[in-house]
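Box 3.1 A note on notation
Throughout this textbook, protein chains are presented in two layers. The first layer is the amino acid sequence; the second is a token string describing backbone geometry. Keep the layers aligned when reading.
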Amino acid sequence: MISPDPEVIAMAVLLDLVLGDPRWLPHPVVQIGRLITVLESLLRRLIACERCAGVLLLLLTTGTAAGTTWLLLRSTAHLSSLAGLLAAIMVSATCLAARSLHRESSLVAAALGAGDIISARQHLSYIVGRDTEHLNEDEIWRALVETVAENTSDGIIAPLFWLSSGGPVTAMAFKAISTLDSMVGYKNERYLQFGWASARMDDLVNFIPARLTAILMIISAPALGLSWSNACKIFLRDRLKHPSPNSAHPEAAAAGALGVRLGGTSSYGGKESFKQHIGDPLTPLDGQAYRNMIRLMYLTTLLMAGLCIVALMACRR
């Protein structure tokens, strides 16, 4: 079950939607993160050229993640076809993050609903890169909608794209690249050179998925009572208003569908950063906007899964 398989994708999506990522179950991304930490320390000591060390970090991390996944799938397939199938489903499910994205973001929303802004800031800090200590309620809602919109692409649509393109091994390699970007892909003094290769590779592997996510959000909007016309308008107008070449695409489509305005001033490591506004403030950024974003995330996920399954079945015939 190393190659793309429609049954594996269908079961992996179902497993992710039902269970998500149980906290008691060891997750590959956690192990990838530990590997990155060890390799960073080792490579910084051994290689003086930071950019060269960063390139090697990318190759070693991605190669280890892909190779380990390949060995696991091959070894279980030798035991029995059922064991190989179950292993492929489990590996594929760990690459998806729809349920966990909903669960973690809902903790922030619930805390805000209860008037506990301190807990909301704390829970938000686990799922965003910006500083959260001094955010007010409006800024928390904005950060929450932005991260769900962006992670719909990074954490769901992109893994599905790579699952259907290259199978579980390719999807796990994508997760390694994504984890590298989240850990070393920063434009600060420590990681500007060392994380350069990881950040550029993350831009590359997310290029098609980010745009596909935006299109799927626009298609999904009317089924949820949201505005597809405004989603299309804001996507075309604001899709490039972000330092990242990919992030604004899903954010613009989501902002247009919801009728909200994203972007503005945020703080990262104590330094303020202004991102251009995306969307128009037609409706408030509040709990209803968040709930609509979650609904849009789920429908976009199901639509993408359906497209992947149909495409693979057509190729099989």
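Residues 28 and 34 are 10 Å apart (CA to CA). The chain has a mean pLDDT of 95.
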